[in-house]
Design a protein that fits this description.
With 139 residues, this protein is an alpha+beta fold. Helix content is 45%, strand content 19%. Strands 3-4-5 form a three-stranded antiparallel beta sheet, with helices on one face. The chain has a two-stranded parallel sheet with strand order 1-2. Helix 2 runs antiparallel to helix 4 (122-138).
Length: 139
């Protein structure tokens, strides 16, 4: 199935600098500089070459909520607050909405609103990846 992911440039710059993801498991070590460069280089290449794998970055003027939203087609839509480290004894929480109509409407919003007007162009996205790779190299 095609995969579409939208990142904020700020969140990915944080990863490029620190090796920590927004949903980084609290007991997992941060990615090394070399690993960060390899991950970002691989994502950039996949985005260029794989028609079933699409990454986008929000436009700078779009202020998205600090929530991670994942649509698992046929299963539901998951919402979680970013940067909670998945430490289940702390502030981490997830909600899986299994109502089919909610997921259908979220997918329509994602495809017909977010991807049409709230993300960078493919060329700007690839340039953003280049910038992030440079940040990771110099971190």
């Amino acid at each position: 199935r095609p995969t579409h992911t939208i990142f904020s440039k700020q969140a990915m710059a944080h990863f490029a600098k620190t090796g920590r993801q927004s949903d980084h498991f609290f007991a997992m070590r941060p990615f090394t500089r070399e690993e960060r460069v390899a991950v970002l280089t691989h994502l950039k290449a996949q985005n260029e070459q794989n028609p079933y794998f699409s990454i986008y970055f929000f436009k700078p003027e779009y202020h998205q909520p600090r929530t991670e939203i994942c649509l698992y087609e046929g299963a539901g839509t998951m919402l979680t607050v970013a940067d909670t480290d998945y430490d289940l004894s702390g502030a981490h929480s997830e909600v899986l909405i299994t109502q089919t109509e909610f997921s259908r409407k979220y997918k329509a919003f994602f495809i017909h609103d977010l991807l049409e007007s709230k993300v960078l162009s493919p060329a700007e996205t690839q340039k953003t990846f280049e910038d992030l790779i440079e940040i990771a190299r110099n971190a």
